[in-house]
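Encode chain A's predicted structure.
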Amino acid sequence: MRMSGHTKSVSTYKMTSVLAPIYSARDTAITQRPTSTALLCIDSEDRFKDNLALRDPAVRAASTPFNFAITKNQSLMNGFFTRLGVTEVVFPWMIPNINEATKIVGFDYKIGVAPTVASSCLLDLGFYTPSMIASAIQQEVRSQDAALAAFTMTYGVDDAGAQAPVFLYNTNALGVTVRFYPLDSGDMGTIPQINIRSRQLFDLLGFTNTQSTLAINGQGYQTFCQATRYVDIVCTQLTANQALKDTMSQVVARDVLCRVYVGDAQGVQSTTLPSSSTFCPPGCMPTTIYRNFSQPKQIQWIPNQPVPGYLKFEVFDDAGNPLDWLALDDE
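Encoded structure for chain A:
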């Protein structure tokens, strides 16, 4: 008997067990916290013991916001931290661009074949816009001699007639020549801090040795008439543990807490043309500079060392000179 039928095919499978994902935040979340911090707030007004001292002219004259000490009978902070950084600075700018170092420039003039007359141009202390400086020097020069009555000095337009932040002068008289030059530090007065690094009125005008040669006219290079471009805030008590020392291209290098640029001042950066009488670059008028350091300099600190109750703060200009002697007397 022949029988026909169907063959059954059988396949074998190996099964692997897979766990379903767990979406419970309680089981998988990792708690993360920002690093704990503490504020060390310093105010230059705290150099005065109380309001009685604040109102005393003799006490105020003993220090300035640019050179002062904070003195307490106890530590300001007990330590337990390894890094210290300046995160925020509010800096009222009260340093006039025409100060003891920048108030005078040497000036000589020659009329025809007559001998050269040596003189100078002296400005009153205070804040000046570039156009105000040009007007003040023009008035000073014209008062020197009747032959200089046509002398002009302008700011904002170069000798080609283009808008530019430069000073341009002209005697507008045939045979009448003038020159400007910086003074030696010994001729600047009795202030010992004025030295070869100090910026003078000659420098604020953007002049070079070219303008120190007798000529009918002349033009300086671009300038915003700033007494200093930035300041360095220094406190040696807070940077004493800094193993990696600061360095800079200045002649004088110091370990600093931070550097504040005058150009950071809010609301004073002029958007008008340089030739406008309202053109006022930062540093030419009083203002307040606010700076928030998103990545402050990290200053090394010893954890078991407290912040002392005596901290001395000093501010220096871009030439490395103390800033306090450039301030007005009532600051």
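The longest strand covers residues 104-111.
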